[in-house]
Amino acid sequence: MSTEKEEEFYSRLKEELGNTSLWPSEYLYKFIIPSDAEKMAYIEGLFNGKNADIKTKESATGKFCSISIKLKLKNPDEVIYYYKEVGKIEGVIAL
C-alpha cells in the first residue's frame, strides 16, 4: 500500500473507531501470516505484557497461520499503532 493510501486508510479507520466504540474498549485483531516461528514470536512479543488473549491456528497445509488477538486498548490511536507494527512483517495479511 502506498504511504498516501495507507495514511488515508488509517485516518478513516480512526474516525470509524471513534464513532462506533466507547474507549477504552476491547479490540480483536485477526492476521494471517506465513508459518514462521520468528514472525510469530515477533507478533506475540508486541502484545506480551498487555493482558492479550492470543489464539493461533495453523492451516491444513501448514503453510500459514491465523492469529486472533483480543485486548483492551485505550483509544483508536493504539489500535492503529499495533496494525502498523504488525504490518512491518513481510507477508502478513490483516483481516
From TrEMBL:
InterPro entries: UPF0250_YbeD-like, YbeD-like_sf
SUPFAM superfamilies associated with the record: YbeD/HP0495-like
Top-rank taxon: Bacteria
A Pfam match: DUF493
Name listed for the protein in its UniProt record: DUF493 domain-containing protein
